[in-house]
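Lab notebook page, bench 4
Experiment: in silico fold of construct C2
Operator: M.H.
Input chain length: 386 residues
Purpose: comparison with the prior construct
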Amino acid sequence: MWKYSSRKNFLKTLHPDAVESVETAPFSGEDSIVEPKANEESLEMRICDPVRNPGWDHLIALHRDAGCFHTSAWAKVLQKTYNHRPFYLRFSRGRRLAALVPMMEVRSPFTGRRGVCLPFSDTCEPLIFDPDAVDLVRDRVVRFAQERRWRHLEIRGGKFFQVTSSSAATFYGHTLDLRRPIDELQERFDSPVRRAIRKAERSNVSVVVGRSRQAIGDFYRLHVQTRRRHGLPPQPASFFLNIHEHIIKPGLGFTVLAQRDSRPIAAAVFFRFGKNALYKYAASDKRFQELRANNLVMWQGIQLLLRSGVEKLHFGRTECENDGLRRFKLSWDTQEETIDYFRVDPSGRQCLPSIRCNGGLHKRIFGRLPLVFNRLAGSILYPHLD
């Protein structure tokens, strides 16, 4: 299906800072050619549906920054849970791939219709293959938003692709470099992290890696408790069942469970694609907090990823005001960066602020509701959010 000018070009896999052209052939399932090709150098845009066509994953695999959020598997989770419509855009100039921009159309009678790259994704910056085409791609994406009559367009992460000069929201991101021997890696953790791991081991906390439906169910029960403790409703159970079906079962993720006397007390869900992995969800039973099971769960996940050839583990986004979580992630010898979200109106000129709750009344309400009502609230609210 794919033709490459040389094996060397394929292995370099195209970083935006050092990009060589890649020839690409069309694959089945592309819905339409939106931008007609006038000559070899003009920009062509195709709309792809990764839910129906796994060929999308062959394209993103050419870029070394591609992660699980860019994949067709994540598109299936979002579409099947919330019925968001995928508009994944493929840009090329001639036979050279220029950019891949995964987007979902979020439709709600309460919050409007908008385009997001991508909903419920910590960071999902468009994948740029041709830096010289960035301005053309940006203009065409904004025009596409106008054609779809979206209230706004949001891009999550903007190191190489910024749709406006100022960000709508900023978060911290933390990445752990796994390209080191395991002993050296552990020695670089802060001493409280190493002590916590040893304490969990001495406390007879056992850790298992699970890929079964039961494992994701054990995680979800802890997740519901944790979200209530934070004053937030949980995502619906169908969301995590779809994660199991489309990410964990195909081998793009796993669950790590910590147990005490066969009782789950802490858990985490990891995603991976290629050389990149993500620490996506964590949950725990507060009654066993002193056993430091969360640290042991993280350490087990890190070791598994390192042995499987992963080079980078991203710890997800952290709100700038959450100093405790930020310190926890830094204690694992991670590199810190900022993650900027960009949101523009259909004109592409006006930056719009993100609407964020300040943690008052809603946290007190959800923090006191019975778990069954918290779960119901999540099922009602999340289809309208992004």
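Observations: The two ends are 35 Å apart (CA to CA). Confidence is low (pLDDT under 50) at residues 1-20, 25-29, 36-40.
Next step: discuss at group meeting.
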